[in-house]
Amino acid sequence: MQKHRTKIFVIAASALMAIYFLYPTYRDYDIQQTLVSLSGEDSLRYVEENDEAIRDYRLRRIKLGLDLQGGMRVVLEVNLVKLLEDLAKNRDETFSAILQEVRQAATTTDEEPVLLLRRSFESREVRMSRYYGNLRDTDDDITSLLEDEARKAIDRAMEIVRNRVDQYGVSEPSIQKLGGTRIIVELPGVSKEDEVRQLLQGTALLEFKLLKEPDVVYRVMESIDKLLAASDTTETDPVSAAADTTMRDLDEQTPEEFAKEHPFFAMAIINPQQFPGEAIVMEDNREKIRRILEREDVRRVIPNDMEFVWSARSQPSGDGSSYYTLYPVLRKAELTGGVITDARETIDPTYNQPIVTMQMTTQGARDWARITGANINKRIAIIMDKSVFSAPVVRSKITGGSSQIEGMASIDEARLLAIVLKAGALPAPVDIVEQRTVGPSLGEDSIRAGLLSSGIATLLTIIFMAIYYRTGGLVANLALIFCVLFILAVLAGFQGTLTLPGIAGIILTLAIAVDANVLIYERIREESETGKTLRASIDAGYSRAWTAIIDSNVTTFITGLILYQFGSGPVQGFALTLMIGIVASLLSAFFFTKWFFEILTDRKATTISFG
Fold it and tell me: How far apart are CA 605 and CA 582, in angstroms?
């Protein structure tokens, strides 16, 4: 026995190591069962008393995939065409035509947008330096520059998405790159689709913009109204004319007559006394006004330094409908969200409304103090992703670099906004190209079905091996149990994720492990029939079966490696457990079982049978 001390130690140490890595999974399951049995104050007290242990076991347990515990799987695609548009130093009709061509081509081909952009420039014989880089740069230089910016944008988007998900509080999220422009985000236990969309897609473009002077705004609105009505009127004071147009007693005209004479003001209602410069648009008319403002002839009427921005959400009106506010703001932002260092959601004690408080960098605080000090009694719109959350009046100079955003409907929305602000702005918009939601009940059914199928497969295999190969079958069964423990321990130790296809991989691994033992035992039986001793037959059986087993397992391992490298989601889960299982089955077949037989034969065992 002394010469086998090392072998016994390795076997015992391996088993103990597997139990060590699997113990947190057992304890986490035990805690969850305890919590289910408790209720009310007892449950709360148990969580408070065991909070640290619960967190520790949850962190070190075997991670379960979406198909086993429910959640959301979202595939994001970084909009590189929009990034190329934002990187342009100037834009004209030629550039807009080129970009539109690239945008259309990007929907029908997998070619990189940067190469599509260059081809469009070359087809028009236009130098890329006209819109990017320096005038002396060649097209090759600019192409390399844009490709580098695209790569950095994707990496930055992954980092920001990961930060947002971490702050959102999702346990065991999975975030990985897919191809050149896509990001796979798996969020176990999450089911609120609207929140996830806002969390992942919000570009976090925060801007502080001054509102345009009301007299200029009303003059612009009058021009738009005249353009739409295609009629000329005598010049009047724009404020009084617009007010008279929208506030007059409509008993003199039918709504149809008024809408025909003033098509813009029939939908964009103004009230200079209560909302100077703003326009109220009923929800049913919002899309119509949006299309009007995007018309080329209407855009020529609007000054270059001005733009209209919608409120972030609608407000209820007295008749049960709702309306949006159209804010006229300066196109150039006074300050952007790049100066924000911290953001927190809270409740405004004065109005009992959810708000987000922000802290700025030192330079941002100085700029904010200068901006507010120079615009006292003026309004500054706080714009997030091209939507106005609030437009407060500056009452005094704001020092210290603090500010706040109002206009959230709930504290949950305020929390999401704070998360997005703290994580930073995405370098380019991201589009959701695929979304799947798995309910927790389906996950429980999957676990139950997976465990049942695994248990039946293992039990039938154990019974067959014990009956057919007798002593050798019992040893193989012990090796089979060791193999399963090894797979699960590796998943737990290396923070791997167990999925439903992964369970299928484990079942296939059991078949591979049994197949290896069958080959070995059949070789041993052949050697025994030639008259060799038991020990010599065992040694020869393992030696002769080695080549065939290695060949089959290596080819299977390579297949699993290819599946893991080029597959995604369920395919990767299957490939991962398959590769771990192949290694475990080889170790159990050529070390565990062989050492076990060597120990038995050295102890003069004469009852070893291989069927």
Answer: 31
Of 309 and 348, the structure prediction assigns the larger pLDDT to 309
CB 146 within 8 A of CB 133: no
Residue with the larger pLDDT of the pair 219 and 6: 219
Q: What are the pLDDT digits (tens) for 391-428? A: 888 888 888 888 888 877 788 778 877 877 776 667 77
DSSP for 359-381?
EE-HHHHHHHHHHHHHTTTSBEE
pLDDT at 302: 92
Fold of 208-423: Gyrase A; domain 2 (3.30.1360)
Tell me, which fold does domain 440-602 have in CATH?
Answer: Multidrug efflux transporter AcrB transmembrane fold (1.20.1640)
Say yes or no to pLDDT of 553 above 70. Answer: yes
Tokens of 170: 């999702």
In the block, residue with structure tokens 């260092």:
341
Does residue 529 contact residue 554 with C-beta atoms inside 8 Å? no
* Burial 41-56, CB ≥16 within 10 A → b, else e: eeeeebeeeeeeebee
Structure-derived torsion over alpha carbons of residues 68, 69, 72, 74, reported in degrees to the nearest 10 = -40
Please say whether the beta carbons of 142 and 412 come within 8 A.
no
